[in-house]
Amino acid sequence: MSVTKDLSIVARATIFADLLCRCEVTAKDLTLFTMEEGLGWVFDKLISLRQETRSLYLIGNGGSAGVASHATTDFFNVAKIRATTLHESSLMTCMANDFGYDNAYARMIEQMLKPSDIVIAISSSGKSINIRNAVSVARNSGAYVITFSGFARDNPLRLLGDLNFWIDSDDYGFVEIGHQFILHNISDRFAHA
After folding, report:
1. Is residue 4 domain-resident?
2. How far apart are CA 58 and CA 64, in angstroms?
């Protein structure tokens, strides 16, 4: 007998809501925060970033790059933050060609980042080496790093950020939309601040 996954919208919405409510937010020392504490921390950091006219950089691959692009638009337009993604095609392919794809984001971060800027690193699996390399460069440059991941609880990206959002799912749809939902919630807070 085959097991059929319930793909009805009501079933999926119920699962999604549960995943968001169970999203774990941890500091680099693995201190656990509530979702609201984590969102408040990010909001406060972004308020300071905006006041000091520093920059926010968002990175991701594939679907996570799409999440980064959407979040960049919201942070730029709604929050009035100097926000940018780093996956413009000619620059990305140049960096990948000259330094290898594993180092493409790291090379851009190294050249563009200033201390106390913020990097939001998004990887559904948390295993993307190019994202992790960029995070290492950002941390060594004095930037704040916020990570978004899913899949394995012990994925390597989850241990690299100053604050880490982890969604307990191995379903790309849930993880990517969960990241988008959380990032949208943060930018929406600026419209009501």
Report:
1. no
2. 10
